[in-house]
Amino acid sequence: MTTRRKKIYEGKAKILYEGPEPGTLIQYFKDDATAFNAQKKAVLEGKGVINNRISEFVMTRLGAIGIPTHFIKRLNLREQLIKEVEIVPLEVICRNIAAGSLSTRLGLEEGSALPRSIIEFCYKDDKLGDPLVAEEHITAFNWASTQEIDDIMAMTLRINDFLCGMFGGVGITLVDFKIEFGRVWENDYSRIILADEISPDSCRLWDTATKTKLDKDRFRRDMGDVIESYAEVARRLGIMKEMPTVIQGGLH
Questions:
Q1: Where would you tag: which of 115, 177, 237, 242 has the fewest CB atoms within 10 A of its CB?
Q2: Might you give the EC number(s) for this enzyme (predicted)?
Protein backbone atom coordinates (compact mmCIF):
# COMPACT_ATOMS: atom_id res chain seq x y z
CA MET A 1 0.00 0.00 0.00
CA THR A 2 1.42 3.30 -1.07
CA THR A 3 -0.05 5.79 1.39
CA ARG A 4 0.76 5.62 5.08
CA ARG A 5 -2.47 5.01 6.87
CA LYS A 6 -3.24 4.74 10.52
CA LYS A 7 -3.83 1.13 11.45
CA ILE A 8 -6.61 0.83 14.03
CA TYR A 9 -6.64 -2.93 14.51
CA GLU A 10 -5.14 -6.07 13.00
CA GLY A 11 -6.87 -9.41 13.36
CA LYS A 12 -6.06 -12.85 11.98
CA ALA A 13 -7.72 -12.28 8.59
CA LYS A 14 -8.28 -8.53 8.32
CA ILE A 15 -6.77 -5.13 9.09
CA LEU A 16 -8.82 -2.04 9.96
CA TYR A 17 -7.49 1.37 8.94
CA GLU A 18 -8.74 4.85 9.70
CA GLY A 19 -11.45 5.79 7.20
CA PRO A 20 -11.73 8.91 5.03
CA GLU A 21 -14.50 10.42 7.20
CA PRO A 22 -15.17 10.26 10.95
CA GLY A 23 -17.22 7.20 11.81
CA THR A 24 -15.78 5.15 8.94
CA LEU A 25 -13.00 2.57 8.65
CA ILE A 26 -11.33 0.73 5.80
CA GLN A 27 -11.43 -3.05 6.18
CA TYR A 28 -8.58 -4.83 4.39
CA PHE A 29 -8.85 -8.59 3.72
CA LYS A 30 -5.55 -10.45 4.15
CA ASP A 31 -4.50 -13.72 2.50
CA ASP A 32 -3.46 -15.10 5.90
CA ALA A 33 -5.30 -18.20 7.04
CA THR A 34 -5.24 -19.34 10.65
CA ALA A 35 -6.87 -22.17 12.57
CA PHE A 36 -6.90 -23.54 16.11
CA ASN A 37 -6.48 -20.10 17.63
CA ALA A 38 -3.64 -19.23 15.21
CA GLN A 39 -1.55 -22.31 16.03
CA LYS A 40 -1.85 -23.26 12.36
CA LYS A 41 -0.97 -20.57 9.83
CA ALA A 42 -0.55 -20.19 6.09
CA VAL A 43 -0.81 -17.59 3.36
CA LEU A 44 -3.37 -18.55 0.72
CA GLU A 45 -2.86 -16.47 -2.41
CA GLY A 46 -6.08 -14.68 -3.35
CA LYS A 47 -8.17 -15.60 -0.28
CA GLY A 48 -8.60 -11.96 0.77
CA VAL A 49 -9.82 -11.00 -2.69
CA ILE A 50 -12.47 -13.73 -2.77
CA ASN A 51 -13.65 -13.09 0.80
CA ASN A 52 -13.93 -9.35 0.12
CA ARG A 53 -16.21 -10.05 -2.86
CA ILE A 54 -18.33 -12.71 -1.15
CA SER A 55 -18.75 -10.57 1.97
CA GLU A 56 -19.73 -7.55 -0.15
CA PHE A 57 -22.27 -9.69 -2.02
CA VAL A 58 -23.83 -11.10 1.17
CA MET A 59 -23.84 -7.82 3.14
CA THR A 60 -25.44 -5.95 0.22
CA ARG A 61 -28.23 -8.52 -0.01
CA LEU A 62 -28.80 -8.56 3.74
CA GLY A 63 -29.01 -4.76 3.67
CA ALA A 64 -31.65 -5.03 0.94
CA ILE A 65 -33.91 -7.15 3.21
CA GLY A 66 -33.57 -4.67 6.06
CA ILE A 67 -30.70 -6.12 8.12
CA PRO A 68 -28.57 -3.14 9.21
CA THR A 69 -24.87 -3.80 8.49
CA HIS A 70 -21.57 -1.93 8.76
CA PHE A 71 -20.91 -2.32 5.02
CA ILE A 72 -20.85 0.90 2.96
CA LYS A 73 -19.08 -0.07 -0.30
CA ARG A 74 -16.24 -2.11 -1.74
CA LEU A 75 -13.27 0.10 -2.62
CA ASN A 76 -11.01 -2.27 -4.54
CA LEU A 77 -9.99 -5.93 -4.73
CA ARG A 78 -9.12 -6.21 -1.04
CA GLU A 79 -10.78 -3.32 0.76
CA GLN A 80 -14.19 -2.08 1.73
CA LEU A 81 -15.44 1.06 3.41
CA ILE A 82 -17.37 0.27 6.59
CA LYS A 83 -19.05 2.09 9.46
CA GLU A 84 -17.03 2.25 12.65
CA VAL A 85 -18.83 0.31 15.39
CA GLU A 86 -18.28 -0.50 19.03
CA ILE A 87 -17.88 -4.27 18.75
CA VAL A 88 -19.99 -6.43 21.08
CA PRO A 89 -17.36 -8.86 22.45
CA LEU A 90 -19.30 -11.94 21.35
CA GLU A 91 -19.06 -14.41 18.52
CA VAL A 92 -22.57 -15.44 17.58
CA ILE A 93 -22.75 -18.92 16.09
CA CYS A 94 -25.85 -20.21 14.33
CA ARG A 95 -25.95 -23.95 13.68
CA ASN A 96 -28.30 -25.86 11.37
CA ILE A 97 -26.42 -29.16 11.14
CA ALA A 98 -24.07 -30.78 13.67
CA ALA A 99 -20.41 -30.11 12.82
CA GLY A 100 -17.15 -28.96 14.34
CA SER A 101 -17.02 -28.26 18.07
CA LEU A 102 -20.74 -29.01 18.57
CA SER A 103 -20.25 -32.57 17.31
CA THR A 104 -17.23 -33.01 19.58
CA ARG A 105 -18.85 -31.42 22.62
CA LEU A 106 -22.17 -33.26 22.48
CA GLY A 107 -21.09 -36.46 20.74
CA LEU A 108 -23.23 -35.78 17.67
CA GLU A 109 -22.37 -37.31 14.34
CA GLU A 110 -21.08 -34.63 11.97
CA GLY A 111 -23.71 -33.97 9.33
CA SER A 112 -26.72 -34.96 11.45
CA ALA A 113 -29.58 -32.46 11.28
CA LEU A 114 -30.34 -30.49 14.45
CA PRO A 115 -33.96 -30.40 15.73
CA ARG A 116 -33.92 -26.65 15.03
CA SER A 117 -31.37 -23.92 14.41
CA ILE A 118 -29.29 -23.35 17.53
CA ILE A 119 -27.64 -20.04 18.45
CA GLU A 120 -24.55 -20.11 20.66
CA PHE A 121 -22.48 -17.27 22.12
CA CYS A 122 -18.73 -17.27 22.63
CA TYR A 123 -16.78 -14.58 24.48
CA LYS A 124 -14.31 -12.97 22.04
CA ASP A 125 -10.92 -13.55 23.61
CA ASP A 126 -8.14 -15.33 21.72
CA LYS A 127 -6.08 -15.92 24.86
CA LEU A 128 -8.99 -17.87 26.36
CA GLY A 129 -9.84 -19.61 23.09
CA ASP A 130 -13.23 -17.83 22.70
CA PRO A 131 -15.07 -19.81 25.41
CA LEU A 132 -18.77 -20.66 25.14
CA VAL A 133 -20.89 -18.41 27.37
CA ALA A 134 -24.55 -18.23 28.39
CA GLU A 135 -26.89 -15.21 28.35
CA GLU A 136 -26.39 -15.08 32.12
CA HIS A 137 -22.68 -14.31 31.64
CA ILE A 138 -23.39 -11.76 28.90
CA THR A 139 -25.76 -9.69 31.04
CA ALA A 140 -23.80 -10.15 34.31
CA PHE A 141 -20.56 -8.86 32.75
CA ASN A 142 -22.42 -6.20 30.78
CA TRP A 143 -21.16 -7.37 27.38
CA ALA A 144 -24.67 -6.77 26.04
CA SER A 145 -28.07 -5.89 27.48
CA THR A 146 -31.10 -8.20 27.43
CA GLN A 147 -32.62 -6.02 24.70
CA GLU A 148 -29.42 -6.23 22.65
CA ILE A 149 -29.33 -10.02 23.02
CA ASP A 150 -32.94 -10.16 21.79
CA ASP A 151 -32.04 -7.97 18.79
CA ILE A 152 -28.95 -10.08 18.04
CA MET A 153 -30.90 -13.35 18.20
CA ALA A 154 -33.76 -12.07 16.04
CA MET A 155 -31.32 -10.70 13.45
CA THR A 156 -29.24 -13.90 13.48
CA LEU A 157 -32.31 -16.04 12.72
CA ARG A 158 -33.32 -13.72 9.86
CA ILE A 159 -29.76 -13.84 8.48
CA ASN A 160 -29.82 -17.64 8.77
CA ASP A 161 -33.14 -17.91 6.89
CA PHE A 162 -31.88 -15.65 4.13
CA LEU A 163 -28.47 -17.33 3.78
CA CYS A 164 -29.96 -20.85 3.82
CA GLY A 165 -32.15 -19.85 0.88
CA MET A 166 -29.40 -17.98 -0.95
CA PHE A 167 -26.85 -20.81 -0.68
CA GLY A 168 -29.49 -23.50 -1.11
CA GLY A 169 -30.42 -21.94 -4.45
CA VAL A 170 -26.92 -22.63 -5.78
CA GLY A 171 -26.59 -26.16 -4.40
CA ILE A 172 -24.77 -25.29 -1.17
CA THR A 173 -25.91 -26.30 2.33
CA LEU A 174 -25.31 -23.75 5.09
CA VAL A 175 -24.18 -25.97 7.96
CA ASP A 176 -23.34 -23.16 10.41
CA PHE A 177 -21.85 -19.68 10.52
CA LYS A 178 -20.26 -17.21 12.92
CA ILE A 179 -21.07 -13.51 12.92
CA GLU A 180 -20.28 -10.45 15.03
CA PHE A 181 -22.31 -7.39 15.87
CA GLY A 182 -21.48 -3.84 16.85
CA ARG A 183 -23.17 -0.78 18.29
CA VAL A 184 -23.56 2.45 16.41
CA TRP A 185 -24.42 5.50 18.46
CA GLU A 186 -26.95 8.07 17.37
CA ASN A 187 -27.06 10.84 19.99
CA ASP A 188 -27.61 8.99 23.29
CA TYR A 189 -29.05 5.87 21.69
CA SER A 190 -27.19 2.89 20.32
CA ARG A 191 -28.45 0.26 17.93
CA ILE A 192 -27.04 -3.11 16.98
CA ILE A 193 -25.81 -3.74 13.45
CA LEU A 194 -24.09 -6.66 11.73
CA ALA A 195 -20.28 -6.23 11.53
CA ASP A 196 -17.14 -8.19 10.55
CA GLU A 197 -17.59 -10.41 7.46
CA ILE A 198 -19.60 -13.30 6.05
CA SER A 199 -17.39 -15.55 3.90
CA PRO A 200 -16.19 -19.17 3.65
CA ASP A 201 -13.83 -18.23 6.51
CA SER A 202 -16.81 -17.77 8.82
CA CYS A 203 -19.37 -20.26 7.41
CA ARG A 204 -19.43 -24.03 6.97
CA LEU A 205 -20.61 -24.60 3.42
CA TRP A 206 -21.13 -28.09 1.97
CA ASP A 207 -22.02 -29.03 -1.57
CA THR A 208 -25.61 -30.21 -1.16
CA ALA A 209 -25.27 -33.17 -3.53
CA THR A 210 -21.79 -34.49 -2.67
CA LYS A 211 -21.29 -33.07 0.89
CA THR A 212 -17.90 -31.75 -0.30
CA LYS A 213 -16.66 -29.05 2.07
CA LEU A 214 -16.26 -25.63 0.43
CA ASP A 215 -15.03 -23.68 3.46
CA LYS A 216 -12.22 -23.14 5.97
CA ASP A 217 -12.47 -26.74 7.24
CA ARG A 218 -10.46 -27.62 4.12
CA PHE A 219 -7.60 -25.62 5.65
CA ARG A 220 -8.20 -26.77 9.26
CA ARG A 221 -8.20 -30.42 8.22
CA ASP A 222 -5.45 -30.31 5.57
CA MET A 223 -7.84 -31.30 2.79
CA GLY A 224 -6.23 -29.04 0.17
CA ASP A 225 -7.96 -27.03 -2.58
CA VAL A 226 -8.88 -24.24 -0.14
CA ILE A 227 -8.77 -21.38 -2.65
CA GLU A 228 -10.43 -23.50 -5.35
CA SER A 229 -13.30 -24.21 -2.95
CA TYR A 230 -13.70 -20.54 -1.96
CA ALA A 231 -13.63 -19.63 -5.66
CA GLU A 232 -16.30 -22.27 -6.35
CA VAL A 233 -18.61 -20.59 -3.79
CA ALA A 234 -18.03 -17.23 -5.50
CA ARG A 235 -18.58 -18.77 -8.93
CA ARG A 236 -21.90 -20.32 -7.89
CA LEU A 237 -23.06 -17.03 -6.42
CA GLY A 238 -22.33 -15.47 -9.80
CA ILE A 239 -19.57 -13.12 -8.60
CA MET A 240 -16.53 -14.74 -10.15
CA LYS A 241 -16.50 -12.83 -13.43
CA GLU A 242 -14.48 -9.87 -12.13
CA MET A 243 -11.92 -12.01 -10.33
CA PRO A 244 -8.26 -11.71 -11.23
CA THR A 245 -7.23 -14.57 -13.54
CA VAL A 246 -4.87 -16.06 -10.95
CA ILE A 247 -7.84 -17.33 -8.96
CA GLN A 248 -10.32 -18.04 -11.73
CA GLY A 249 -10.03 -21.79 -11.34
CA GLY A 250 -13.21 -23.44 -10.08
CA LEU A 251 -13.45 -27.05 -8.96
CA HIS A 252 -13.10 -29.54 -11.78
A1: 115
A2: 6.3.2.6
Task: Identify the H or E element spanning 157.
Answer: helix 146-168
Quote the CA–CA distance of 87 and 242 in Å, as a whole number: 32
Mean pLDDT, 10 residues at a time, over the chain (252 residues)? Answer: 81 96 97 90 96 98 98 97 98 98 97 98 96 98 98 98 98 98 94 98 98 97 96 94 52 41
Rounded Cα distance, 87 and 115, in Å: 31
Q: HSE on the CB side for 110, CA within 13 Å?
A: 10
Can you spell out the DSSP letters for 225-237?
Answer: -HHHHHHHHHHHT
pLDDT of residue 38: 83
Comparing CA positions, the residue from 229, 240, 182 lying closest to residue 203 is: 229
- Note the pTM of the prediction, 2 decimals: 0.93
Residues in the chain: 252
What would you measure as the largest C-alpha separation in the chain, in angstroms?
54
* Contact in structure between 244 and 49 (CB atoms under 8 Å): yes
pLDDT value of position 245: 52
Side chain identity at residue 200, one-letter code: P
CA 210 and chain centroid, separation: 24
